[in-house]
């Protein structure tokens, strides 16, 4: 779709983003834009490298790697990068920093409720074995009522561990509290007393988090420091009865170690909204396990949240182009 017509700043949008954001850009009268007019397939890299040539600003989603090659292809006009995501592991911050003057917007906060809600849904689906249960019900596996059949683990009286305490971890804990969780614990690079006090969570070491959590939920960003942080070492310290949940980024988990922990009974179950790669090939061994629930990266997927993310990405971009503070700007 070509919506360019004037000498207004040029924007390329790498995806057909939800309507609210497009409306803001169209009605602003401040920019002209061109977009990859599909939501079903990402823009091919070659096309992307062509399309970004000479643009003033770029809206992207998490499927686009924003690296040296792309920034070089865009050239010196590029002033604003606005990603429609809270995660920014697809952006090479080093390369962005090198090209001084490029400002980067992202979309935290507006998705916190949606991600926390989905995390709770995934946790309960995994711990109460809902996928196995519906499968049994419709495939003839439902015989008589049985005393221990499809038993799982409950939140009441449990210890919930949060790996990486931020806005989303707090929002998850707030939602889990009414399920009568006994204790919240967390670990992070350093204690975060202000956030922790909101949910009465205790700071513990990584080892204590592993050994004490009945439910361990990963809420940290993917960085070089957190890559593969959930590995054999962590799983081996967890209880056989504990449930592992990840709605952050697949890269924080060593999937081979997770497969081993799940198939050997080292841990009771895992619920993943994120994997490496995405999509996870249907032949992946994790799909063979009954105690692993895999969702296709949908934590923020509610109509209202995705529209809010799209609107925030558009507003960040317009403010950035005007040289004003963005609503949510990444400090480079
Ligand atoms: C993000 O925003 O980073 C999520 O993974 C998708 O909403």
From TrEMBL:
Residues 120-299 form the D-isomer specific 2-hydroxyacid dehydrogenase NAD-binding domain. The keyword Oxidoreductase applies. It comes from the Eukaryota. One of its GO terms (molecular function) is NAD binding. The keyword Oxidoreductase applies. GO terms for cellular component: cytosol. Keywords: Oxidoreductase. PROSITE patterns: D_2_HYDROXYACID_DH_1, D_2_HYDROXYACID_DH_3. Residues 11-329 form the D-isomer specific 2-hydroxyacid dehydrogenase catalytic domain. Belongs to the D-isomer specific 2-hydroxyacid dehydrogenase family. This is Glyoxylate reductase/hydroxypyruvate reductase. It comes from Oncorhynchus tshawytscha.
């Amino acid at each position: 779709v070509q919506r360019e017509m004037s000498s207004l700043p040029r924007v390329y949008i790498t995806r057909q983003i939800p309507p609210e954001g497009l409306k803001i850009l169209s009605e602003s009268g401040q920019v002209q834009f061109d977009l990859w007019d599909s939501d079903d397939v990402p823009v091919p890299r070659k096309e992307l490298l062509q399309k970004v040539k000479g643009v003033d600003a770029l809206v992207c989603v998490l499927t686009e790697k924003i690296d040296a090659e792309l920034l070089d292809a865009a050239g010196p006009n590029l002033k604003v990068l606005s990603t429609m995501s809270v995660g920014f592991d697809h952006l090479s911050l080093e390369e962005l920093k090198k090209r001084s003057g490029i400002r980067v917007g992202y979309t935290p906060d507006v998705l916190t409720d949606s991600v926390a809600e989905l995390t709770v849904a995934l946790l309960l689906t995994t711990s109460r074995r809902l996928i196995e249960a519906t499968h049994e019900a419709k495939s003839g596996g439902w015989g008589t009522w049985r005393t221990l059949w499809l038993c799982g683990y409950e939140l009441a009286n449990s210890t919930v561990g949060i790996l990486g305490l931020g806005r989303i971890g707090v929002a998850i804990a707030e939602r889990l509290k009414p399920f009568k969780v006994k204790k919240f614990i967390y670990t992070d690079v350093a204690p975060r007393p202000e956030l922790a006090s909101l949910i009465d969570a205790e700071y513990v070491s990584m080892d204590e988090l592993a050994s004490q959590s009945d439910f361990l939920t990963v809420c940290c960003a993917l960085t070089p420091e957190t890559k593969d942080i959930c590995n054999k070492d962590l799983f081996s310290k967890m209880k056989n009865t504990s449930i592992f949940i990840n709605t952050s980024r697949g890269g924080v988990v060593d999937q081979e170690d997770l497969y081993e922990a799940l198939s050997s009974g080292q841990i009771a179950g895992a619920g993943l909204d994120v994997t490496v790669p995405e999509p996870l090939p249907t032949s992946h061994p994790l799909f063979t396990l009954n105690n692993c629930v895999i969702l296709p990266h949908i934590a923020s997927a509610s109509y209202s949240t995705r529209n809010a993310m799209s609107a925030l990405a558009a507003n960040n971009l317009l403010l950035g182009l005007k040289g004003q503070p963005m609503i949510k700007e990444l400090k480079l």
